[in-house]
């Protein structure tokens, strides 16, 4: 790779003397760099390829960090990072890990927020603008939003408020005609109409909200972008620029398969084939099970908020199109919608990624739980992970299990998961949420026929004495390992599968007191507000010691899983050591 | 009151043979009934007076409960209740309490959901419509939304999805030119434009979303409403009717002061004066304190999501208009907006009613906590109450205190509240949330000068032995009462004010082990996921008994406060009895 121009760019001001032709060449060099890095290291490819020119034009025209850019979701900021002193992290493979995949104020003064969830950018930018006005600043505030985020309620609340502000705020809508998956909703039909008419259609949601609206038909043309930015720079009122860009631009496989390359694992640059094959996961289990069940029961409908492949609906959506609904990035709607479907006696199954279900606590409580409608909700990916701090999935247990009326279940194996889904979908009594296990699929090979009407009934799997291990969901197998190690040391521990996260089995816990002196709980989530705390509270005035194992209440950012396990003292040896100390 | 027509109406079908003239008379009778009841018993007056005619027309034209009505917020459903077999609860003072203030499926087959939070109606109705389509039903689904709800993100997500559905759904937008307070946002400017042009303006947000749009200029005219309903009944696609109604219609004081009569305590029908005067509350403390502080610091800005008078900004908004922002019903935006303002180094104070802060968990976590911006958030009304099940405020402790980085504080007196607000607003280190006490104001008369940088430092107020009482926030005074009762019985209990909800003081808890054998915790919220559980976990393997007192994880509906205290064993005698049993 020869990076003639990029080699000379170390900060935004180095752009200022380039010609448009130079900047076009720079865009080409950046694309090469992005393709090289993402093909080797994985990451968000399509969104970044689409934003190269607009980002160059932003930094050419405006004066960052005095002028402030807020990138919604911030998964499209690789070019921004390259232009703001962080190019080594993209050019030099040894430094690939020195930047995160999102904006990050700890990395650079050009980043203002850590952002990873969608639809927040306009509100955050509005805050910067208001702060500027209060303090008498004069800089431009520019929010980049799009790529599916516009369907989220927070984006609308932000636009609705930004539109009536009386000072400078520039909203750049990056319309690439695609979210993570196909777009859904009237808004996207309006965007299509505006694209067709080059912004001239009478029906225009942005004008209706009150924005001074501009359309740019080719957001991948640097000159067009510089022109529009020069025009709106230093405006004294809210402005919205609607630009059309090509997601994946410059890499044919990413243009042809926008979804596959929205975020990708490492791939062969030549063929576009992703390297390595993922082993079967619990997402496959969900997918296969739901397809089989829904084929035979047309009352079943599967719902996703724009992320079918991370919530076990990847095959379902192709095989059973008529029983599949993608509501777009709109988690709040998804939950209320499912509640309404269940009320009308059909069978909704709405599946979410754990970190994103955080967006609809109030809907789970008000629209679903108070109304006690028997919808089935799946929570995928829950548990400790090496994810970015914006995508942690360790908070769902405190969030969900403390809502009245909701039955929150934690299966420990493929068969138990299938039995729980089967029951949840057919029963008509409770809102049921299932925490899908993560990691390697555990299969016992023995079909489970039980139902789960007998709420909060724990299962005593191995009857022992002195020590009782309660292993929740994914951590049941950790419980098995710990038990084996304790057996080696001459103990005979009891092992319990609690199955229910949202309540405890007082009878069984009482029974344990007869011949146990220590109960340990294992949960794959934070301890504060969690499952183990309920056990600790149960025994708090009784002669039983309790040790809770789980994650700490902290945001961790791309810390490897094994390191987190060690830090949280969740390695089997660490657990055994702590147990021995207690006895 | 002579109720010539209403006397003959016991169910919707009794309307079918009335003439329009009769229905107008019926509307007059219903208004009289509403005014009589609400003036005596309190309730939502303005929204109900505005919806009388439209509701009569709905029941005249459609066939409830086969055709299904979903009322957003459902505080405008008194006429609906009167027409669906529940008129006695409005006419007969002895039966006033036999219905709730919201729709309630337990009361009537004409009600489909328990709803009390705004902006959910379109999504819930979309679910009913989808369920109908799956099961091959043919009924009409009609959602009534408006009165400020349209600014909420969930309403937009619902509209965005409803607009592209391929079958019958009728959205009735009740545009009364007012939310609870003044409207805010570009949407409301668009509604005003549409009213002025009788729906003909080019800029039309509903058409932009794809709806088949109809405008009714007088939604209080029964004939107009019947005409439009006849026209859209049984349509095969999404339709949106935008009607203009007069909030408070028929009662001059309610028209003139729409906010005062949105919800009102009992009042003098003649003069419109509210009966009785409320004692000084913690909301007054907030209001007065913020006004004084903000007068001297122009960097301070107070933010509400449309409910200034229930969050301590009633005077503030009038006295310091330039430092006051009402973002409309848009809690998600409010939190992200505050985070952005704090990032830009101004000083936002965003105040919420506890039950409504549930709408922005993800924004508290992602937009605020991960970014660690020093915004101040106030949570008002938190604690056990006799409220409707949709307005309980017992869930904020599990919700907020288990988010990393957030400092959640619980003041026990006026002076401590003031010290906490003072510190929170000026410090630049943490996102701080303060749980405003409820009930009678406790004033020590002694100004507190301390800061709260020393996180999770509990205060040992009375040093005793054997029993330690940890009384959180509002329940600190309950702790004092319990302590006195124990002293009478010859004990000498320790009393602790923890101040921090989001963490524990390990050092102090360790110290207690020297000469205590029982720690009791008192918190005004649910125990599951709460504060006491953290204490129980701390001592779970140590020789200390712990008893947690607080609310159970259940939805309670208009249960009197004292009954709840008894049920949760929170009466001082009950607590003392349980303590004695332990020793």
Main features:
homodimer, 583 residues, alpha/beta, Rossmann fold, 3 domains, 16 strands
Account of the 3D structure:
- 2 copies of one chain form a homodimer.
- By secondary structure, chain A is an alpha/beta fold.
- In chain A, 37% of the residues lie in helices and 15% in strands.
- Chain A folds into 3 domains: 234 residues, Thiamin diphosphate (ThDP)-binding fold, Pyr/PP domains (Rossmann fold); 154 residues, Rossmann fold (3-Layer(aba) Sandwich), CATH 3.40.50.970; 124 residues, 3-Layer(aba) Sandwich (Rossmann fold), CATH 3.40.50.
- In chain A, the strands form 3 sheets. Chain A has a 6-stranded parallel beta sheet, sandwiched between helices. In chain A, strands 1-2-3-5-4 form a 5-stranded parallel beta sheet, sandwiched between helices. Chain A has a 5-stranded mixed beta sheet with strand order 12-14-13-15-16, sandwiched between helices.
- Chains A, B: It holds the Pfam family Transketolase_C.
- Chains A, B: Homodimer.
Describe how the helices and strands are arranged.
2 copies of one chain form a homodimer.
Chain A: H1 20-41, H2 46-50, H3 52-61, E1 68-71, H4 78-86, H5 88-91, H6 121-135, E2 141-146, H7 153-162, E3 169-175, H8 186-196, H9 205-209, E4 212-216, H10 222-232, E5 238-244, H11 252-256, H12 282-295, E6 300-304, H13 316-319, E7 324-326, H14 331-343, E8 347-353, H15 354-357, H16 361-369, E9 376-380, H17 396-401, E10 407-409, H18 414-426, E11 432-435, E12 459-462, E13 466-471, H19 476-488, E14 494-497, H20 506-512, E15 516-526, H21 531-538, E16 545-551, H22 561-567, H23 572-582
Parallel strand pairs in A: 1-2, 2-3, 3-5, 4-5, 6-7, 6-8, 8-9, 9-11, 10-11, 13-14, 13-15, 15-16
Antiparallel strand pairs in A: 12-14
